Amino acid sequence: xxxxxxxxxxxxxxxxxxxxxxxxxxxxxxxxxxxxxxxxxxxxxxxxxxxxxxxxxxxxxxxxxxxxxxxxxxxxxxxxxxxxxxxxxxxxxxxxxxxxxxxxxxxxxxxxxxxxxxxxxxxxxxxxxxxxxxxxxxxxxxxxxxxxxxxxxxxxxxxxxxxxxxxxxxxxxxxxxxxxxxxxxxxxxxxxxxxxxxxxxxxxxxxxxxxxxxxxxxxxxxxxxxxxxxxxxxxxxxxxxxxxxxxxxxxxxxxxxxxxxxxxxxxxxxxxxxxxxxxxxxxxxxxxxxxxxxxxxxxxxxxxxxxxxxxxxxxxxxxxxxxxxxxxxxxxxxxxxxxxxxxxxxxxxxxxxxxxxxxxxxxxxxxxxxxxxxxxxxxxxxxxxxxxxxxxxxxxxxxxxxxxxxxxxxxxxxxxxxxxxxxxxxxxxxxxxxxxxxxxxxxxxxxxxxxxxxxxxxxxxxxxxxxxxxxxxxxxxxxxxxxxxxxxxxxxxxxxxxxxxxxxxxxxxxxxxxxxxxxxxxxxxxxxxxxxxxxxxxxxxxxxxxxxxxxxxxxxxxxxxxxxxxxxxxxxxxxxxxxxxxxxxxxxxxxxxxxxxxxxxxxxxxxxxxxx
Length: 612
Hints:
Number of strands: 13
Helix content: 40-55%
Strand order of the largest sheet: 5-4-6-3-7
Radius of gyration: 27 Å
Number of helices: 24
Strand content: 5-15%
Structural class: alpha+beta
């Protein structure tokens, strides 16, 4: 083996070591490894940077925009709320959570799905009085399992698919086990293995989490010292919650938020019972913490009761919530909100006031402001920059995640997602073109703004995949992949193709724990292809690469064993109160059951077909 191959393997070792410390960002490490190979002229510049223009990278970026459209319109959140329900046991709760998450993850990036579900599951757990630790890890694992079910479910599938199609060139299509021609890279190719693996994985979690998933301390309860606001919302005449009871509308037992009264036709109904039915134009009074107020404003059919909100000079898409603390020398002090002409002067509407834990019974317009009052404002996105240094306020800050949800475009966003699936499954146009078209459709139909679309692209993921493609190309060009394959074949080559399939699966899964799933897939792809060419079946050397490619896709998704193996694992790590060793307790048996399914099912659907 020449020095270039040794240098490439040494670089990969440095990359893995740096990532294992968890002190440097994965994008910095992967880009650094690629740069090191460039500095020592291991790989030509054009080959090193080709990954940044790779079709898989473009497709992944487009899918992030599609996911943003679904999130901004509340399309997926609406489905999630309906599917969760109110189960009676932890097992049924886990099943009702994981099933839709896995299905959704098969058709869109799983990171925004988990991000969307985190607050929903946290509130759900409080309502059901279930420890979040029993739900958050299953949430992440279900998203990962679902991603392995289609060619677009996870970034690693997209990357391997494109690499495989490139390697085939003009070779004829493979055939399935029943002799029907099979087009390499078709949308449902990996489903035949990914779906049973997901079913078995979800079943294992439901059956064993009682013992393998410890119940850690639940999320911190809401304290009496938490800042609480009184807000009033009005039930719009065309609201879908008109005619529903408080319980049916989801307004009972809101975490940290309490329905204190209903004002209906000049009558006030205090201590509202859960069976009370809502009517059009009801004014609902709530007292609660800021996070729950934000969630309340995202319920379809509820609007702020003050008419000042609609008079704010800002488009609906530019609206946001802002907190502002009244300064002692502010001209607002000792004047009522109505007297201050607040909306006219500041182009913002006060929707709630917090005053040192006191319950302010007056209407918003009648409240006399005092120094230290915290105002919750509905205003334009530029308010913070405009008044950050104003003497009128001590502190001004934007409330995260408070943009209005475009409910009226939810079904349009879901329709675009359906169109994407149809285009990808039918093969009418190139998959990359289909993803780009649907991403542009999200922006063109105003399901998501151009700014939000740009910000929604996870550039860390893009850089990691593009850099991994360059490092993988270096393994090919230097012969490092061939030497690793030769070593594997010398050790296990006589065990047969099924054993080799298991070896490739486990090596890929181990790599996925140390680096990213996409990085592991890219680095293992040339090794898997070389292994297929060198494995023995009787006296014949070489089998079809198809089963190895499919198994590689499923294996790369098995990021279950450590919290740093995949971003969704990290996302649930803190909210679930987990410890590092909680992941391998459930992750190791989960990886083994998926490996067993892959090794048994893959050759049935994609026979080895000796080529020698």
